[in-house]
Write a structure and sequence with these properties.
Helix content is 0%, strand content 51%. It is mainly beta and 119 residues long. The strands form two sheets. Strands 2, 4, 5, 6, 9, 10 and 11 form a seven-stranded mixed β-sheet that branches. A four-stranded antiparallel β-sheet has the order 1-3-8-7, with no helix packed on it.
């Protein structure tokens, strides 16, 4: 069955950096748009970054532009989120999400991984 497994989270000080990774299995990774979402306590889940399956340019929420970078490696079925200059407001649970490029009902979520930014 389809599975997304996140890694790389944890505690970090403000101004620090982390790289989140998501390994996919059980589906044709290359035809899925891949995204990272996050959810902080009391807040709705929000889209942080998306990288399309068709090689198009990534998209980012305004609050992370210039600090975060999403990338994918289709040969390894992996998507990464490089997070630089982290701020306390980046503290959240981060989720990997796969959405088929052409079939909306084909979608998968990872279990999420916690990122805590504090001094």
């Amino acid at each position: 069955q389809a599975q997304l497994v996140e890694s790389g989270g944890g505690p970090v000080q403000p101004g620090g950096a982390l790289t989140l990774s998501c390994l996919a299995s059980g589906f044709t990774f290359s035809v899925y748009d891949m995204s990272w979402y996050r959810q902080a306590p009391g807040n709705a889940r929000e889209l942080v970054a998306l990288i399309p399956s068709d090689g198009g340019a990534p998209n980012y929420v305004d609050s992370v532009k210039g600090r975060f970078a999403i990338s994918r490696d289709n040969s390894k079925k992996a998507v990464h989120l490089q997070m630089n200059n982290l701020k306390p407001e980046d503290t959240a649970r981060y989720y990997c999400y796969a959405q088929h490029g052409k079939t909306a009902w084909l979608k998968y979520w990872g279990q999420g991984i916690q990122v805590n930014v504090s001094s």
